[in-house]
């Protein structure tokens, strides 16, 4: 009998996405070096207060990171993330999660910082 552990798959996925993100950051150092100020970042993270939205955002951002790597030479870092997702034919429900809200525009260059922060917040919620 084979026993499969879901957290093991999640960890594996996060490691793979992390390596894709590292590749993306090597090609575009601006992604790795981009950092929002703390006030702006608090507002951005507050857009994902709902635990389900946070979990969905982490999963969707993982898909976005993989697709960005596959289209690495054609990326506009200052494009709104939701607009880029539309062109990549994401579901409307998925790209609307990253639509401009409260005057905050999430850009393609935010994906690394956002994925890491939401992934860490998701982990915090699990262990609280």
How would you characterize this protein structure?
- The protein is an all-alpha fold and 128 residues long.
- It has one domain (20-127).
- It has helices at 6-27, 29-33, 38-46, 51-70, 81-87, 92-96, 111-127.
- Helix 1 (6-27) packs across helix 4.
- The chain is globular and about 30 Å long.
- Mean pLDDT is 81; it is low at 3-12 and 123-128.
Rounded mean pLDDT is: 81
List the helices and strands in order.
HHHHHHH
The rounded Rg comes to: 15 Å
β-sheet strand percentage: under 5%
Helix/strand-derived category reads mainly alpha
The global form is globular
Q: What is the helical fraction, as a range of percent?
A: 55-70%
Tally of alpha and pi helices: 7
């Amino acid at each position: 009998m084979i026993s499969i552990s879901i957290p093991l798959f999640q960890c594996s996925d996060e490691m793979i996405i992390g390596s894709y993100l590292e590749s993306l950051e090597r090609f575009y150092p601006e992604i790795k070096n981009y950092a929002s100020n703390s006030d702006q970042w608090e507002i951005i993270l507050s857009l994902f207060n709902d635990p389900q939205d946070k979990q969905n955002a982490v999963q969707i951002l993982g898909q976005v990171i993989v697709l960005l790597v596959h289209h690495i030479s054609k990326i506009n870092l200052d494009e709104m993330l939701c607009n880029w997702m539309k062109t990549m034919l994401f579901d409307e429900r998925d790209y609307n999660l990253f639509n401009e809200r409260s005057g905050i525009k999430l850009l393609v260059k935010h994906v690394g910082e956002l994925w890491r922060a939401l992934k860490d917040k998701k982990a915090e919620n699990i262990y609280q």
